[in-house]
Each structure stands twice: as structure tokens, then as C-alpha cells.
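Holo prediction — fe (ii) ion.
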Amino acid sequence: MTPQTHALELTPEEREAGLDAEQLRRLVGLVEHDPATDPFPVIAQDAVIFVVGNATQTAQFYQVVFGMELVAYSGPETGRRDRKAYVLRSGSCRFVVKGGVSPDSPLLDHHRRHGDGVVDLALEVPDVDKCIAHARAQGAVVLEEPNDVSDEHGTVRRAAIATYGETRHTLIDRSRYHGPYLPGFVAAETRVTRPAGHPKRLFQALDHAVGNVELGKMDEWVGFYNRVMGFVNMAEFVGDDIATEYSALMSKVVASGNHRVKFPLNEPAIAKKKSQIDEYLEFYGGPGCQHLALATNDILSTVDVLRANGVEFLSTPDSYYDDPELRARIGKVRVEVEELKKRGILVDRDEDGYLLQIFTKPQGDRPTVFFEFIERHGSLGFGKGNFKALFESLEREQDRRGNL
Ligand SMILES: [Fe+2]
């Protein structure tokens, strides 16, 4: 590692959110990395961009229920006639929710095909042109050529490449920009009044964004991220680990050099009944983003507030906590197992440490996108030890929907 390593330098978003390098190391497993040797250096996830059926209400949901702050807006009032877009922040994590206003908005066609979902996992990069030149040479589909966009707050340089399904990675260099989000957006403010004692925020950062791809395509997409974006392989799950009696999946994880950006990729595996990944692919209309994991440093209070706000989580059977094997495997964690059991929080341990995690039910009408909340204590894993308990719980839900 050279002394010029920049990886543990914080992004302006992280600094603004009051995070420090040690917290990020713990929260999202940030590692040192020398961008000079990286063919496709990535600073961080810039934003998760959703297309939804009703952006106005979805933005309200993220503010009221997920405790996010509204920071920017674009729509008819700002000259964008066909759509509305709301930008929300929690710590260094940024969501953008977009919806069609005029009946001929292409966003409505997207929504008809996919329902509420993630259209863009936008990445902040220091050199858009370098990334695009490398991606193109490696065979990526360039959806938007590098171009400058400016307003009174400065200039961003941007481009976009295609990934699985109708999902894209917009690449943004915002080093010369000081506005609230991107040119065309105006600053906006949350009008929600939080009750006394409400935590400052319910999550601090995006930990990972999972993609579901078709049967037999996982390795192809792992190869894409290795080759096109220089991502490294982090962990590997094989079918047996994740298979339950009826449905199964395979999963591999790729990460950017500094590990700030982590993309697990799932494909269905052959099983007796329909895999949960097949259910997703059917209802999303093809490959797409399955879940977003949000990093919190206090999962107990986060879950308590979310539950009080009406969020429904996947249930975990009491037997999970009472299993002596699990108790032996997880050893000592920062809270009593009873506290985890009360809330249905899962725990997993590996050679580096442990993690606490919980999953919501799908957040839209279709059984597609959902959220995970994760509190890491050294573990850089993804809860491999919980996959079986988790999937049995998922299957109960799938069965209730008549899709198993
Ligand atoms: Fe996850």
C-alpha cells in the first residue's frame, strides 16, 4: 500500500453526515485501496435511484417511516414537465425517487413493466472518461456518453453503462459541483416534525445492493463486474448453503476496491418448488435489484422505531434463538439474545466478527424490492449462517402469496 492511498479519505457526504473512517470501517467494511492502480476507480455509491408509481407519497414514506431528510427536488415547478424527483438522505446514503407526471412520461412505461424498483445504482467516480474508456474496451454497453451538465452551482461530468436487466450505473464526477444534488434540482427541506427522542437517523450508510439475475447468469455478471468495473470477489455462497427444501439460490459478492460499494448477485437454483429469485424475476419482469442493505450502528433502536412506524419485517421463529447450536456459534454479542429474539433480529458470526441483520417485507405492491438493516461488528460477511432461517421465513410469505 502506498502512502498516497486515498481510500480512507471520507467523501463530503460522509463528512457532512458526521461519520469517521473508523465508523465506516466498522459500518460498511471500508478497506484501504490505491485508486492509482485501479482501472475503474469508484469513490462511493452516489445514489440509489428508484422509479415508483407515486414519487410524492414514496418520498413522504422515506421521510416519515425511514427517518430520511428531503434535500432536493426537481419537477414541473423547476421546469421538468414530465416527472417529479425527490432526493432523500440518511447519513451518507442517498435515495432518489422518481415518478411520471405527464401521461406520456417514459417513467410510466418503466413502471408498467417493473413496478416500483431500482433503475440506477449510481456511482461517484473521480474520472468518468477513464471509467468509460475501460468499460467500453471490456465490452460494456455505454448508455450515456461522458458529458458535462452545469448550473449556477457548478458542473458535473456524467456517463452511464448498462448492467443487469433494465438497470444502469450512472457514473458521476461531482468534484466541481456544490449544489444540493445535480444540475436541475433545487434544494428542498423535510417538513416532518419528529417526535421527541427520535434518533437523529435510522441508518448511516448503504452497505450493499443485491441484484437478482436469471438462472445460469450469475457467473456472467460476476465476470462483468470483475472485467468491466475492476470489482473484486468477496465471498462465495454455493447452493447447498442456501438451499431449503423447496427453493434455492446461488449468490456471489463483488465489491469496489475500497469495499464501499458491494453488489451481491443471486441466481435461482434448481429446487422442488419455485425459487424466491424466480418469483422476483417473474414479478419484476426480469433481472433487477432485489434488496438494499442499510447500515445502522444501533439496530435495536432502528428496528423499534421502524416497527412503531408500521414497517413489517420477516418473522424469525423462536426456535432460531433457542437452538443451542446457534447460541454456541454466535458466542458473545453486544446485546442479550433475548433482545434480538424480541425483535426478530438475526445474528451471524465468521472469523472476522459478527453482524446483526433483519429484513423487511417487500415495500411495493409486487413481491420484489425489500430492505435489510445491518449492524456490523467486524464481520464482512452477508449473513450466510442465516440464509436457511431467512429463506424458510421468505418461503412462508411466498406461499401465502400463492407463488411457491
Ligand atoms: Fe443482504
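READOUT: Residues 1-7 have pLDDT under 50 and may be disordered.
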